[in-house]
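Researcher: I'd like a structural prediction for the single chain below. Treat it as a standalone chain; there are no partners to consider.
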Amino acid sequence: MKYTNPIIPGFYPDPSICKANGKYYMVCSSFQYYPGVPLFESEDLINWIQIGHVLTRESQLPLQNQGVNGGIYAPTIRYHNGRFYMVTTHVGGIGNFYVWTDNIHSEWSEPIFVEQGGIDPSLYFEDGKTYFMSNGDDDDGISGITQCEIDIDTGRKLTPSKCIYNGSGGRYIESPHLYKFGNTYYIMVAEGGTEYGHMVVYAKGNTPYGPFENDPKNPVLTNRNLGGYVLQGCGHGDLIEDDNGNVWMVHLAFRQIDRWLPFHITGREVCLVPVTFHTDGWFEAGINGTTPTEVKTDRISGSVVQTRKLTETFANTAPGIDWVFIRNPDMSRYKFSSECVHIHPSPMGLEEAGGSPSGIAIRQRQMNGTIHCTVTLTDGESGISLYMNEEHHYDLFIRKTPSAYEVVKRSSIGGVICEQNRITTVSSQADLTIRLTNCDYFFSCKTAEGTHDLGRLQTRYLSSEVACGFTGVMIVLYAQSDTDTMPTVFSNFAINYTL
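Model: Treating it as a single chain, here is the predicted structure.
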């Protein structure tokens, strides 16, 4: 069969994978968005359904005053003795912790803290022992991949933290995972930074503590030398063995807006490549060590067909799954149905860096398509935002004025805010449309007076290369008012993507 990368499009970085009861499960980073740690399920490694989030209670994930680079980093999911474990770092919060559940479709435990620093933690289980690793400093101040043994019931350290691996020489070592295939232990990490130099490297040894010998052909996977290629930034991988004994790697990558334009807006996405072991114990990944957009393989049955969700509406999306919030929301401000969403406005705007504006967010998953929504308000402003972070977003909204209403297109780039176009209308309702293309967003509206073109804005100014940070563009339906007014009604919502 043939499948296309990314297998999960949109802002879902740092994938980690496990297998249990005949199915595969994956988690990804969520940073300042709530609920935290999106959770996916698959039967074939190609088609994934989001079944929820891991961190669904504020007691698990307090995000107040978490900036764009705070929140949840790089989770790892593992299955051991009938129990699922998810370990991650809450940057700006408690640091490294894990939660567990015996039912993947139910709630997870309260956080269990681990007293080892660094980020990107992982777990490895063997012979009744639990190995905890992260990248940071060990107890002697040595930097690298650090490991200790813990009591999995309490998180208590049982051994000192010890640096066990320093990588292959690339910068920003991260994403450590430990595996055992046959009698050999493998440690796999990412290097080069989660940018255009990103890569996966690994080493092998005879014990969980090494010493580890680097693959002389490292990196085992990277697209860093593929100029003029849309898929870039391959790294941060995790390995899984399927039921037929085949090994696969899930990893992150991002798509440029054009093969010759080094900007990406949909964030770091999930890709899949085959892994092949050789008789000498070394392995290779991808196609000649790279990740293509199309992969042909006989490892997956030809009856498997990759599906893409190209239309999203209120009817086929759900709050807490597809729709998330900027930091911890006040849920009394929201009322959801399959036809419309009521959002009670708050005084807090999208430029707020610590609280939770009144708004619901869904990921932009493809480069091309249209967003449409009918917005009906009483006071203040309400509309659609293409939101990268507090200082980089484009807004199309309807606003109450002293004498009437107006539809406005506004850009915020690096804190420079500009209202570029205004259409006056007598109605409190407007149909808002944003057309998505690789390089430009096009804005228009329909009011009681007719249809209006409000011009375009370039996508590159919402890219990670310009806005910085680790997320991707979110489509936010928001409502803001300084008065205690009636909820804004969002209806006729639809995103229609084209590939």
